[in-house]
Amino acid sequence: MNDLNICQEFSEHVTCTHKSGYADVTKLYHKHNNYEIYLLLNGEVNFYLEEYGYHMEKGSILFIRPDVFHRLEYLNPVDYERVNIHIKSWYFKTLNTAHTNLADVLSNHGNGSYVSFLLPQQQIDKILEKSCELERSLHWEQFGDDILSECLLKEILLILNKLPRNHQFLQKPKICVPRLVSDIIAYISENLTEDLSVNALAAIFHRNGQYLSRRFREFMGVPLQQYILHKRVDLARKYLEDGVTLSQVCMDSGFHDYANFSKLFTKYVGMAPKQYQMQAMAR
User: Fold this and answer.
1) Can you tell me the mean pLDDT for 100-122?
2) 1 pLDDT band (50/70/90 cuts)?
3) Can you spell out the DSSP letters for 85-98?
């Protein structure tokens, strides 16, 4: 494999962008199979993650685990400027060592899925400097850029993991999701393998099923049942990556019918469960 192909492959599992403006920014809930670092440099937004939300201003930084539904709400017309770093989940694992797990900050100081900090100017400048150099080095135009890219990425992740030592930097989520939607999301997360049909949820929340579905879609931007399918497929992927048998994955992720599970998994992931597991286990 030549250097150009290696560079293209690397750019597929690590990206770093420093952008201004609102062009090409989705306002709908979405997710991706990447760890994400989001640093807000200018502007003011609400950043929603599942059933919680953060009010973010200059210097707010989020570290997000893969497959967490999230979206942005813009609060003023000031130029929107941010840094985004995306790291494919399988590649992220290769950055860890026997002594250092670079995702520890998520479990130890976040809720397991994401953590947020509000940084002083000194820390903002430090991460911005390293992220801009990372963005440049990812093009592999100079000697040693391949090594430099990984070093810079690890250094940024180490900074994030060391921030909680100064607890004043930690941000707590501001609950800004409608209570009904928040309660539905929390119930789905805790009961993903149970009956989550519209009728079942209507009975649990003592509301009309159509009303529940409408309120959920109005805020989340995706249909309620589609959201549930995404969550179940994500759970199935984790089981497949752990080597669980296909039939057991089907049951443990809430599908129960293998033919339906295989069809939906292929639709959302782009490959059959068996093929996905073989690729995951080969890494």
Assistant:
1) 89
2) very low
3) EEEEHHHHHHH--S
Tell how many helices (H) and how many strands (E) occur in the chain.
Answer: 12, 9
- DSSP letter (8 states) at residue 138: T
Phi, psi torsion values for 94, nearest 5 degrees: -70, -15
CA dihedral 207, 212, 213, 215 (to 10 degrees): 150
Cα separation, 36 vs 108, whole angstroms: 17
Phi-psi region of 221 (alpha: psi -120 to 50; beta: other; left: phi over 0): left
Which amino acid is present at 52? Y
* pTM of the model as a whole: 0.81
Q: How far apart are CA 245 and CA 237, in angstroms?
A: 12
Residue 27 scores a pLDDT above 90: no
User: For tokens 């940084």, what's the residue?
Assistant: 119
H or E element in which residue 15 lies: strand 14-20
Lowest mean pLDDT among 45-49, 182-186, 218-222, 232-236: 218-222
Using an 8 Å Cβ cutoff, are 64 and 35 in contact?
Answer: yes
What strands, in cross-sheet order, belong to the sheet with 60-64? 14-20, 81-88, 34-42, 60-64, 114-118, 170-171
From 2.170.190.11, 2.60.120.280, 3.40.50.150, 2.30.30.40, which CATH number describes the 3-171 domain? 2.60.120.280
The matching CATH number, chosen from 1.10.1040.10, 3.40.710.10, 1.10.510.10, 1.10.10.60, for 179-282 is 1.10.10.60
pLDDT tens for each residue of 223-266: 999 999 999 998 999 999 999 999 999 999 999 899 999 999 99
Within 10 A of 215 (CB to CB), how many other CB atoms are there?
Answer: 16
Grouping H, G, I as helix, E, B as strand and the rest as coil, residue 70 is: strand
